[in-house]
Amino acid sequence: MNKIISNNPFYFGGVVRGKHFCNRKSEMATIQADLNNGINLLIYAPRRFGKTSLIENTLQQINKHHIFLDMMSITDEKEFINDYFNAISKSLYTTTDKLINFFKKVLNIRPNISVDFDQTGQAKYSLQFGISEQPDVFKEIVDIPNRYAIHQKKRVIVIFDEFQEIRRLGFEDKLRSAIQAHSDHVAYLFSGSKKSIMTQIFFDKTNAFYRSVKHVPVLPIDAESWIDYIRTGFRNFNKQIDPNHIHAILKISKGFPYYTQQIAYEIFQITAETCNDDHVQQAVSSILDREADLFLFEWENLSTNQKKALKLLINAGGKNIYRKETMEQFGLTNSTMKKAMGGLIVKDVIDLNPDGYYLQDPLFAYYLKNRF
């Protein structure tokens, strides 16, 4: 197969691998060591922060069976059972015959197993069962990784991506009950992009998953790593970019891998030999034009007081936002401001760090700051 040659060294819009993956060495080492030792992990980060890329690049370095399930599109418990069964089936055995023989050995239930093949020859596994059988099928399927690990005498790693969807699906307690005895044989990694929900699931003592994981923070990639990565990308194509221009990128992207790569990609496209100030501004303006519909949709999805609170937050730089004079300037009272801020946190529009409140999406923040 011929290798596709790219004319741009930067990549965004999907899982980033290989030469396009920048740094994350510390997080990768921590995740790898903990999963190898059977520790259950929690990773959450905003959208476009590179969470899934971090996980997939780490898994490539771990010599263990792993099962990956993205829960974002799952609509109900039955679909979870089938999607999880399909993910398990594709991960554990290379042939259908071996897979079916294993299921016959370990499953107490006998649901009908269907195997369909797409045009590329990829198999998709599913189960046929009645509604009355669903509770037993759920327990059996969720227990398969544990039984496989015991059977093979090897630890298995399970990744539930976008795990905050468990709250919508409504079987959080049931899943926790089914997997809590797997600790000796299966390591679970729960990842998500909705911090407000993920923290409720794992840090609220009233919830089933309370204190069941080790939290691995995913921090922004440091500026020096980005400078080296971006300058090398330009240099490999006989182009140049000054560190000051890379700092200008990072001031907007806040180190988010998606946005950093996206801006660098656009600058590279319009730079003939050497990047200048106009190239940076032109690239950012082009991206904002394309993202405008999405940002306007997010803005229109906010209540009037949430919009006012967001304007106040941007104007005040996230600090001293409850000053009476500042709130009056935006037509807010202490109670309406607190309610609006609470709603913005629940919607994962804003968050709080030691420096104050901030918008989670840095390009959305840049868009609003320049618009208002």
Report the CATH topology name of the largest domain. Rossmann fold
CATH architecture of the largest domain: 3-Layer(aba) Sandwich
Number of domains: 3
Class by helix and strand content?
alpha/beta
Mean pLDDT: 90
The succession of helices and strands, N to C, reads: HEHEHHEEHEHHEHEHHHHHHHEEH
What distance lies between the first and last C-alpha atoms, to the nearest angstrom? 51 Å
Adjacency order of strands in the biggest sheet: 2-5-6-1-7
Share in helix: 40-55%
What this model shows, in words?
- By secondary structure, the chain is α/β, with parallel strands linked by helices.
- It has three domains: 24-215, 3-Layer(aba) Sandwich (Rossmann fold); 223-298, Helicase, Ruva Protein, domain 3 (Orthogonal Bundle); 302-371, Winged helix-like DNA-binding domain superfamily/Winged helix DNA-binding domain (Arc Repressor Mutant, subunit A, Orthogonal Bundle), CATH 1.10.10.
- Helices cover 52% and strands 12% of the residues.
- It contains 16 helices and nine strands.
- The protein has helices at 25-36, 51-59, 77-92, 96-106, 134-152, 165-169, 172-179, 195-203, 223-235, 243-253, 257-270, 277-300, 304-316, 324-329, 334-346, 362-371, and strands spanning 41-44, 65-70, 112-117, 123-128, 156-161, 186-192, 214-215, 350-353, 356-359.
- Strands 2-5-6-1-7 form a five-stranded parallel beta sheet, sandwiched between helices.
- β3 (112-117) and β4 form a beta hairpin.
- α10 (243-253) crosses α11 (257-270).
